[in-house]
Structure formats: C-alpha cells, structure tokens
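Entry for the shared binder. Reason: the reviewer on the internal report wants the predicted structure included alongside the sequence.
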Amino acid sequence: MADDQDSPGVVRRVYRTVTPGYKSHTDSGMNSVGWIIFLVLLALFLPLLPFLLIVWVVTKVLDYLAAQRGPSEETET
C-alpha cells in the first residue's frame, strides 16, 4: 500500500510561475551601447597605431640583423 502512494505516477511538464514567459527579442539598446564603446576605444587607440607600427618594424629589423650576425658568444656556454 505504501508503494502506491510513493510512486510519482505519470510525469507531466508543469511550469508554475507568476511571471510571464520569456520571448527572445533583439536588444537594440544594448547593441547601440556596444557600438558606441567600440567607436570610442577605436578613437582612443587609433592615434597610437603609428607608434606601435614603428616599434614592430624596429624589432623585426633588429631580429633580422641578429640572425645575420649568427649566434652570440653568451648563448654558447
């Protein structure tokens, strides 16, 4: 008799909530904020691009010159 009362029976999908269901939608307000942040960061970092390019070119030239000289004596120990 106790087994009959403890069994869950037929499983049904029941949603008990007081809030309405969520329906997906586009969030154009957040998209606008994201684009504004991107454009502000782009405006801030764009003036730094020439300096970063110069540093990158100098390091590539120094690496090339170091490879042309061969291995240094300090690394052969």
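Summary line for the report: Residues 49-69 form the longest helix (21 residues).
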